[in-house]
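Data availability (excerpt). The following record was deposited with the supplementary files.
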Amino acid sequence: MIRFIPIISASLLLVVLLSSCEQVIDLPLRDSDARLVIEGGITDDPGSCRVRLSRVVNYDQSNDPLLVSGASVLIYDNGAEYPLTEMETGTYVNPQLIGIPGHAYRLVVTVDGETYSSTSFMNSKVEIDSLSFEKQSFFMDTNLVTHIHFKDPAGIENYYRYRFSTGGPLNNEIQIDRDLFFDGQDINQPLFGQGPKLFPGDTMFIELWGIDKGVYEYYSTLREILGGAGPSTASPANPTSNISGGAMGYFSAFTVARKWRVVE
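Predicted structure:
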């Protein structure tokens, strides 16, 4: 089954990689007051548990983030409490905590006497079966489009994010998907906007993130804001956050599957 997803460039984002699978996004806000932004989560990779805290100001002012130090950051798993340590200003980690598929993780952040929380469920891991390449012509130009093949689990709501690299950092585009129309099917997903043209000998590296519904909605609304923002448009709304207490951003517990293939 071949499906097509919209791809919106993230050139408007200032992206800082916390780790190989965590992405931090500095948000333009509609509100007039500075707001706390919580970004981070936990994966099934060792050393991936990280949370970044910052404050950003109004969308029409300087949007340099103010990193938040001295916060209490805790993650709960089945009643067990795991504190995160401030590794550097605004970045909190627990290298020993590794996510387990099937578990729900609760984040609790306390800053200046205010408490914020979020819960994210880590679905069972979906592995990548294989990668393939197909020649496609676009306006008299021919390129190789990468296809990712995997089996969607039947009877479960699954949400995905695709990330890839052709030798450099992972792509910044917000490419997300859900199994609303392909539950339980074998998926053959072309990944457009994959960056530089591929040539024999190049290596394509793919990550398939298994995210939950709340994080999918966050990415979806953020993509709409970035795609529609412009001088002639109305002020954008804030992205849908899965964090309670009035903070912006997201907390995500997700699996990461990887696959690479050399172009022949």
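Summary of structural features: The chain has two domains: 15-123+213-254, 128-210.
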